[in-house]
Amino acid sequence: MIGYSHYRIAAAAVILLVGLATGAEPVTHTVAIEGTRFDPEMLTVKAGDTVVWINKDPFPHTATAQTGAFDSKSIGSDKSWKYTLRKKGVLTYFCRLHPTMKGTLHVE
């Protein structure tokens, strides 16, 4: 006869396998900074994913959250900066050096 604890262990194993099968691993997303804009301007990610901003312009930029959740400081030409998103929600961000540059992250 199988005890209750065996069912709990089996259920936990199934949950783990389902999580692995559905791609629960974190993903790295890229935002290009080019032509004085963020591309893509809107990006949907999962909590735990990482976003990498790559500056393709010949001058520096920042990726700075309106809420203060993150601030890349200056990202030089041909340089990058990454941030891992931990909380669900919507984060808008901009470039401190060029405030008309704006982006949005939807974290699920």
Sequence-ordered SSE layout with sheet pairings:
Blueprint: H1 4-21, E1 28-33, E2 38-39, E3 42-45, E4 50-55, E5 64-65, E6 80-84, E7 89-94, E8 102-107
Parallel strand pairs: 1-4, 3-8
Antiparallel strand pairs: 1-2, 4-6, 5-7, 7-8
Your description of this structure?
The protein has one helix spanning 4-21, and strands at residues 28-33, 38-39, 42-45, 50-55, 64-65, 80-84, 89-94, 102-107. It has 108 residues and is of the alpha/beta class. It has a four-stranded mixed sheet with strand order 2-1-4-6, with no helix packed on it. Strands 3-8-7-5 form a four-stranded mixed sheet, with no helix packed on it. A hairpin with a 7-residue loop joins strand 7 (89-94) and strand 8. It is globular. It starts with a helix and ends with a strand.
| Poorly predicted parts | 4-21
Total helices: the number is: 1
**Rg value:** 19 Å
The major pleated sheet works out as: 4 strands, mixed
* Strand fraction: 25-35%
Helix and strand pattern: HEEEEEEEE
* Structural class designation: alpha/beta
Estimate the mean pLDDT confidence. Answer: 86
Record field, number of beta strands:
8
Shape estimate:
globular
Major beta sheet, strand line-up: 2-1-4-6
Short description:
The protein has 1 helix and 8 strands. It is α/β, with parallel strands linked by helices and 108 residues long. The strands form 2 sheets. Strands 2-1-4-6 form a 4-stranded mixed sheet, with no helix packed on it.
List keywords for this structure.
single chain; 108 residues; alpha/beta; 4-stranded mixed beta sheet; 1 helix; 8 strands; 17% helix; globular
